[in-house]
Write a structure and sequence with these properties.
The protein is mainly α and about 625 residues long. About 50% of the residues lie in helices and about 10% in strands. The chain starts with 12 loop residues before the first helix and ends in a 20-residue tail after the last helix.
Length: about 625
Amino acid sequence: MSTRSANAMLQAYDVLISQPATANGLSSAERDAIVISAIVNEVGETLVLSRFGDSQWDLRPFFDQANVSYSYKFINWDMSMPRALIDDSKAVAYAWFKRGMPGSKPPIARGITILAVASVMPFIRWLNNLGVSSFAEITPIHISNYVHYCKSELKLRPLPLYGRLRIIDFLWIFSTDMMFPLKNYPWGSSTLWRICGIANIKGLDSANKNVGRTDIIPPDEQSKIFNYCEEIVQDMKAELAVSGIGYHPSDEQMSIRCRDAVLYIVSITSGMRNDEAIGIEVGAWRKELKNGITFYWVATVEHKTGKGLVEYLVPELTFEALNLLARYSASIRKELEQEIRLLAKNQNCSNSTEHILRLEKARKDSKKLFLGRNSQGGKIKEGYHVEALSGQGSNVAFGRLAKAAGSNWPLKTHQCRRTYARCFVESCMGRTSLIFLKWQFKHSSMSMTQLYASNPQQDLALFDEILQQMTEFKIDLIESWLDEQQPLAGGAGEKIVKTRAIPIKDRAALLTQTVPHANIRATGHGWCIATERGCGGAGLYEATRCPTCKNAVIDELFADTWQDIYCQQQELLKIDDAGPGVRQRAERDLQVALDVITSLGLSPINDNIDEAGNGDEVH
């Protein structure tokens, strides 16, 4: 009997390929007999897991992501609903899974399960409550009422709304696969995208359109959680230094804390999605020296867009944390290896589908770094097994971390990627200075474009996320400048204040269209919007050149900076032997700083000019 590799797929390709591409034209018996999923055992025999007519579709063989929970790999069709609705929904889901949308490839299994749970079953139940027993009975008023229900009562935002209404679009697109198709195009003269408020806006243009729910972790909360995780990693390092490489932790709770802390550090310092972080295997990281700079890379598999193997750039601290966890988690991997050996030796169960699927899952997880003990019921009992941490388990872990760190923030895994992108933008724009991002992107030596070119295996979608966050940042910034209550200084700032009197019909639309093309750079003491050759960067070093520049905008964010500049000039004026040139320059810069502070509606916080012997007190 041959032994399968850890990444071998058990799908019965011959059987699956031979299935019809559509349920259309088949008798009821033929349609119900279509094989949805099947596997082959060690001797090549085909074992069917589910068929079209079953109340449950078992899609486990199609899942490659390590972080998907057991229960999320099935579609449970509610057979108490009208049979015509269920059968046609199955036909549409099968057509999409088999052929894909026109002009695009078929979806991954997770796409089908999400469609069924989030879109199909809610719509069917809503129709059933109205007494509708087939899709052919649907009228435009049904569609209109359902859209109103989702928007007004469920209060769904554009993207969640799109996910809820998507089945209606599919019913029209795959109408030839159905027995009782829709009689009319569901969206009238519009489209699903426009109905949901997304329209044709994609990529950078979707910024500020309120299309998603993902929160950005506030800096203060992020600091608490990150520092707490760093402390755990340092404790792990100290313990390993004493106990040696062969150390097997006896404290399971400490092992869990170490795993969770490293998972957060990886997520927040790399921008990985959760399934990519959970997909990291032991040793799948490396470092290289290029032009005197050390780069640290972590390899994983990207599933969402099908790019496959990708590498993420991480800072040294993340690289070290991964190495430490690989040593610290040796014992739980040994448990999994022992289960694999026992499963492989158990000849009595070699033809059991559950046995085969469990063995395959165990082999695929055997080299994963982020493992946990789990049971099918959700509680660890005698029958638990070791497997890769699920997405739900990761969220529970992050909740524990936040609480232990003294934070009340509802921390979730999906927040890390967007927070990472936002932190990068904030750092680039001078609002924050995160050291790990400086390490990560080597700010002093290269641009994002150069960085991406240095390793084409990186996830390009992450750079898109960063660029979108940059656009959102600039939209928020310019919107704050247009606020009547926001005082501004600088040449460009004064012009912006004047333009506030001009009525704008749709400010949001104007910002969305123009901001991606706006050039805004942080100088450390203001914003520079120069698009042509300006001061050549001299204003970065000579701050007091900026307030009178036509390209400068100074807002309240930099008020403390100008207060400090004002105080510095006061200190210079106190020096008796500085010479007339220094004194003259200090007096000039003192007045410039005072003008900026006054324009921002503030007063100097340390106004003691009289002590410097410079005449009347300045208010």
